[in-house]
Amino acid sequence: MQKQGLELKQTQRLSPLQIQTIKLIELPVQELEQKIRSELEENPVLDDGPDERRDDSDDPKDISIDEIKDDGDIPSYKTRINNWGKDPRPEYNTFSVRESFTESLMEQLGYRNLDEKSYQIGAFIIGSLDSDGYLRRDIESLVDDMAFRAGMEVSEAEVERMLRIVQEFDPAGVGARDLKECLLIQLKLRTQTEEVRDAYRILNEQFQEFTNRHFNKVMSRLSLDEKRLKAAIACISRLNPAPGGQLDDSYAEQAQQIVPDFVLEEHDGDLSFSMPRFNIPELRVNRKYADMVSGAKGSGDRAQKEAAVFIRQKIDSAKWFIEALKQRQNTLQRTMQAILDFQREYFLDGDDSNLKPMVLKDIAEKTGFDISTISRVVNSKYIETHFGIFPLKYFFSEGMENKEGEEVSTRELKKALMDCVDAEDKKKPLTDEQLVTEMEKRGYKVARRTIAKYRGQLGIPLARWRKEL
């Protein structure tokens, strides 16, 4: 039997200003510039040029956007977003950031002389790659997926052919179905010196023995002496086991450019920061449109009144956008200041051991903002310091306690772990259990599973893979 009832729920609707502010907070400075230019093009009421009607005897600089009311005459005013101050607009100080993995592969696919079907197959393969660059799905599954999801009837041979083409792309090793294939692809693309040929034979014919570090068996079966084996191992060690995760130096010319949202300044131990405005213009509401609305009051002309309603909507939109810019500025400033205060010791010299455990909640409590707001501020924002440029995400990490009960950041633990591995005897590398002991000697009590987790995040292979002759 169905029952009907009335339920009251309290919901919160975001105002246009709140929605606008949230969207602007997420944008890094370059995208913010694009957004402002877009608004200037779409809203004729917004203006970034000089006020042609301004005269020095009637300077409207102190008049606020709050003076624009829905009733009453609209006064002569000038609305600006000028939180960036009067500093000159410098040239961009740009920094390289690698373009996305998928974008690069799709660009390379576009360079090939392919028919439409082949291109679509290649694009589907690229879209099926894992983040580390591997294809972990069999060809048959890809054929079925293309039929059901993309409506494409393709053969396994067609997919295999396009996979071979994708495997020729940079970074070398992309599109491999396992580690062995990944490494062999890279060796095929290298100049065929003796050590490269030996490395290829080792991986192709003795992969299992090699991965298990049974070097004597490898030398015996392939008739290699120790010198040639060492040279081949050195060659293999320079290969990239995760082509999607790290791109080699030849990739640098495809780097995108970013602009820091904050610039750290340090003077005799005093820390401060600035927010370069670069190409962000001052905005105001164009006076002539406000005059048109004023002139339409009391007018009997219907067309004039309709035009005034349209202009009023555009003025409201301009008000919200300018105010949202101000709120974005205030939110970013307060958040960055809280991070700077929290991590003051670290920002003095950039020593990772001074980086304290810090999560989004810590900064939310300091600023009074929601955690979601802090997350939006941190996302895609960078700060330029005297010891490098960093994404704001870098300064956030969970914490653990050391033997003395003091809280230390996971980044400090990872650095200590890396030091342990660097100091080990490479002929007898430390197992994860032995690394637990070494970490404890350094004052860090860490479980074996945590060692394995951090080792994976740092790209440190298992002990048997670190063993050298």
Notable traits:
469 residues, alpha+beta, 4 domains, two-stranded antiparallel sheet, 49% helix, 7% strand, flat
Describe the structure.
The chain is 49% helix and 7% strand. It is of the alpha+beta class and 469 residues long. The chain folds into four domains: 15-97 and 258-396, no CATH class; 99-169; 181-254, no CATH class; 399-466, Orthogonal Bundle (Arc Repressor Mutant, subunit A). α1 packs across α13 (302-342), α12 (287-296) packs across α13 (302-342) and α18 (432-441) packs across α19 (448-458). The radius of gyration is 30 Å and the shape is flat.
> Could you say which structural class the secondary elements and strand pairing correspond to?
alpha+beta
Give the total of domains: 4
Termini Cα gap: 78 Å
Give unreliable regions as ranges. 7-11, 53-92, 246-256
Radius of gyration: 30 Å
| Helical content band | 40-55%
Q: Which strands sit side by side, in order, in the main sheet?
A: 5-4-7-8
Which term fits the overall shape?
A: flat
Strand content: 5-15%
Give the count of helical stretches: 20
Largest sheet: 4 strands, mixed
Residue-averaged pLDDT: 77
**Topology pattern, helix = H, strand = E:** HHEEHHHHHHHHHEEEEHHHHHEEEEHHHH
Strand runs, count? 10
Secondary structure elements and pairings:
Layout: H1 16-26, H2 29-42, E1 46-47, E2 95-97, H3 101-111, H4 116-127, H5 139-149, H6 156-166, H7 179-188, H8 194-205, H9 207-211, H10 215-222, H11 226-237, E3 256-258, E4 262-267, E5 270-274, E6 284-285, H12 287-296, H13 302-342, H14 344-349, H15 360-367, H16 371-378, E7 382-385, E8 388-391, E9 399-401, E10 407-409, H17 410-423, H18 432-441, H19 448-458, H20 463-466
Parallel strand pairs: 4-7
Antiparallel strand pairs: 1-6, 2-3, 4-5, 7-8, 9-10
Helix pairs in contact: 1-13, 3-4, 4-6, 7-8, 8-11, 12-13, 13-15, 15-16, 18-19
